[in-house]
């Protein structure tokens, strides 16, 4: 049986690095990227971290520091980040046969099936060099006999510059030396609350957790934490997942750039979120029967009345037709809406999924699916994804006052013809 061997490739300061790709004037300068509605810091360049700017801190709290140090500020440019991420993952797939895209800036590689004569460390170095040369993004590579050890190796590659971005944890003694230096909070899968409970048991480092009997961990925590103990000892409990698991629900929601006080504006927002959710549903190849709509005010506004409501409804049959769900969403919203509130967020959630062809209507059911629904939705998605035009439903996105506030948004350099960089 072939021994397991994994690598984790993680892009360094990914959002900030994407913003710097087309701005050479920002080389070696501090950069921060803001969350939806320009609320909090969600990404920082190394230079911004060295200034002491913390992750998730509200933007207004660090504005003076940002001005004082001339920090470049960007709104989240999701179109740019997704495209650069796709280029990174495609490059990895050209170099290794099995790749699991773990997040927008991380991927696990299966190295166990490579030729035994291949130099693994040289492969890791080649990966770093190719992604840097072809795409312009810096990555670190961690190697280990389990995913958790590969993640730990990647953590070390980022922490210690002397590693030159590659750490190989195949050696047992090297594993233990690194685990002895690693706080329990830095272990993949160990959240803040679990870390606090482990510390009460006298477990403060990764090595102490690895040396704890798995049965004791299972009795006090869960099987997932027990699996972490096995993985820290080099026993792989999870393989590469090349097929993405089917979602059990699809959520489309967003905080508003400006508070919504008019029913018409909320209708447009809910219509837009419903359209987005249905596009995701069709991309999954699924049908749904349940839709939930929620609206709420801000938790942090002291002088205004607060309201948080959700309502769920069902279709007579599973569908992926946007028209069916818009009609249901508007019926639910009409029952939820209350005048006199300044709403800060809204969204929809699809649930109760079916595979096509599984659900059958009764012989005497009066409600039938809309004619040629499949053909119409396919055409709709084809046009909207072509980049040439966009078809919208009536009442969808006509008023953009409720849209996200992104005052520092950079151009979509790689996905919009009109925003290509100009060479002078």
UniProtKB/TrEMBL annotation:
Record bears the keyword Nucleotidyltransferase: yes
Top-level taxon of origin: Bacteria
PROSITE patterns assigned to the protein according to its UniProt record, in alphabetical order: UMUC
InterPro entries, A to Z: DNA/RNA_pol_sf, DNA_pol_Y-fam_lit_finger_sf, DNA_pol_Y-fam_little_finger, DNA_polymerase-Y, DUF4113, PolY_HhH_motif, Rev_trsase/Diguanyl_cyclase, UmuC
A Pfam family annotated for this UniProt entry: IMS
Keywords recorded for this protein, A-Z: DNA damage, DNA repair, Nucleotidyltransferase, SOS mutagenesis, SOS response, Transferase
GO MF term set: DNA-directed DNA polymerase activity
EC number(s) reported in the record: 2.7.7.7
Enzyme class: transferase
Domain UmuC: 6-191
Similarity-based family: Belongs to the DNA polymerase type-Y family.
PANTHER family (alphabetical): DNA REPAIR POLYMERASE UMUC / TRANSFERASE FAMILY MEMBER, PROTEIN UMUC
Protein name per UniProt: Translesion error-prone DNA polymerase V subunit UmuC
Organism for this UniProt entry: Shewanella cutis
Top-level taxonomy: Bacteria, Pseudomonadati, Pseudomonadota, Gammaproteobacteria, Alteromonadales
């Amino acid at each position: 049986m072939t021994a397991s061997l994994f690598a984790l490739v993680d892009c360094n300061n990914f959002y900030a690095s994407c913003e710097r790709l087309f701005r050479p004037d920002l080389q070696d300068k501090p950069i921060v990227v803001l969350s939806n509605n320009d609320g909090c810091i969600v990404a920082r360049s190394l230079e911004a971290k060295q200034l002491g700017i913390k992750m998730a801190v509200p933007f207004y709290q660090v504005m003076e520091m940002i001005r004082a140090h001339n920090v470049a500020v960007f709104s989240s440019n999701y179109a740019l980040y997704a495209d650069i991420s796709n280029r990174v993952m495609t490059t990895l797939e050209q170099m290794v046969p099995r790749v699991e895209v773990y997040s927008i800036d991380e991927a696990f590689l299966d190295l166990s099936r490579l030729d035994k004569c291949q130099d693994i460390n040289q492969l890791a170095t080649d990966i770093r060099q190719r992604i840097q040369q072809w795409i312009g993004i810096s990555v670190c590579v961690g190697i280990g006999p389990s995913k958790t050890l590969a993640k730990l190796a990647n953590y070390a590659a980022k922490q210690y510059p002397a590693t030159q971005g590659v750490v190989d944890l195949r050696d047992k003694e090297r594993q233990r030396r690194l685990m002895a230096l690693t706080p329990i909070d830095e272990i993949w899968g160990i959240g803040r609350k679990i870390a606090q409970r482990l510390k009460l048991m006298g477990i403060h480092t990764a090595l102490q957790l690895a040396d704890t009997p798995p049965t004791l961990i299972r009795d006090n925590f869960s099987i997932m934490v027990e699996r972490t103990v096995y993985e820290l000892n080099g026993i792989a409990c999870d393989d590469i997942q090349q097929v993405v698991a089917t979602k059990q629900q699809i959520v489309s929601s967003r905080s508003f750039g400006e508070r919504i006080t008019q029913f018409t504006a909320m209708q447009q927002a809910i219509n837009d979120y419903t359209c987005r959710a249905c596009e995701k549903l069709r991309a999954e190849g699924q049908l749904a029967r349940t839709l939930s709509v929620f609206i709420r005010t801000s938790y942090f506004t002291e002088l205004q009345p607060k309201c948080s409501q959700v309502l769920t409804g069902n279709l007579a049959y599973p569908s992926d037709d946007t028209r069916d769900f818009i009609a249901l969403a508007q019926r639910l919203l009409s029952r939820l809406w209350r005048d006199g509130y300044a709403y800060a967020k809204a969204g929809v959630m699809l649930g109760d999924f079916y595979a096509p062809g599984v659900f059958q209507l009764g012989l005497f059911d009066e409600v039938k699916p809309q004619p040629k629904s499949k053909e119409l939705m396919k055409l709709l998605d084809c046009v909207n994804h072509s980049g040439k035009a966009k078809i919208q439903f009536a009442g969808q996105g006509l008023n953009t006052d409720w849209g996200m506030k992104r005052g520092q948004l950079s151009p979509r350099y790689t996905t919009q013809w009109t925003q290509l960089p100009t060479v002078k």
